[in-house]
Specification:
alpha/beta; six-stranded mixed beta sheet; 152 residues; binds zinc ion; globular; 37% helix
Length: 152
């Protein structure tokens, strides 16, 4: 795990997408899938909008990217997400064979990379991406904090 990278512009796009999801009443989490220097999918959380408990930003973006590429394997693709992925999304990232995972804030309550089940380190995980955490961390945490403060 490598920490403290400078926030790349792809994470800025993920943060913008997170902010828009928040404006739509969703939990403000955003995700971008990139191949080379090309953005092939962006998505925010859509669980409320779609009435779909699996419509996390990562899954929505992975589906869109896979459709665009025409393959269920996103080889050579990198995924940027503003919050540490949950167990479901970590599983999907593994199945999709994502090359690198960049995420912002850690999620001790729901995360599955450095928190909880630490899926990529488990013996039942057959593909683990390279993981870079803490990218855009403070902005990601600020969006979530503001969102939940307004809701209390
Ligand atoms: Zn998730």
């Amino acid at each position: 795990m490598i920490r403290g990278l400078k926030a790349p512009s792809f994470m800025d796009l993920a943060l913008k997408t997170a902010e828009n999801a928040g404006k739509a009443g969703e939990v403000p989490i955003g995700c971008v899938v990139v191949r080379g220097y090309e953005v092939i999918a962006t998505a925010g959380n859509r669980t409320l909008t779609d009435h779909d408990p699996t419509a996390h930003a990562e899954l929505v973006a992975l589906r869109e990217a896979a459709k665009k590429i025409g393959s269920e394997r996103l080889v050579d693709c990198d995924l940027y997400v503003t919050l540490e992925p949950c167990t479901m999304c970590a599983g999907a990232i593994s199945f999709a064979r994502v090359r690198r995972l960049y995420y912002g804030a850690a999620d001790p309550k729901g995360g599955a990379v450095e928190s909880g089940v630490r899926f990529f380190a488990s013996p039942t995980c057959h593909h683990a991406p390279d993981v870079y955490s803490g990218v855009g961390e403070s902005e990601s945490a600020r969006l979530l904090k503001e969102f939940f403060r307004e809701r209390r």
